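Morning - adenosine monophosphate inputs below, output right after.
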Amino acid sequence: MAYDDTNVFAKILRGEIPAKPVYEDDFAFAFNDIRPQAPIHVLVIPRGKYISVADFGAKASPEELAGFWRAVSHVAELVGALGEGFRLISNSGPNSLQEVPHFHVHILGGKRFGALLV
Ligand code: AMP
């Protein structure tokens, strides 16, 4: 499957639609989810054009991989989720109901979750 340049996160990266930024650097952009499902609900996306975590893992450079995952940890700290704990979710493909085909990680926190998120 080819990357779709019209997806909503590609538009956010190009500044075509607004987002509420939490953090950005050369590798990653983090912003608040428009429909939060927890008191803390931030999305972290790579700047590169990757559809899913598998696509990112297979094709991203070592610098992009390290930069992105460092940013995820940094954002979890920035939003105050490190101490009490948080969940990372990355939906990938139809069974997960992935809505936006640009790789992203959800950082969810600020509450105690159930044992499973299914
Ligand atoms: P997923 O199902 O993992 O693809 O999740 C996509 C997420 O993107 C959902 O939680 C949406 O609420 C969120 N979302 C969609 N459009 C926007 C937007 N314009 N700004 C912020 N978050 C968005």
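Note: Strands lie at 21-24, 28-32, 40-46, 86-89, 105-109.

O.
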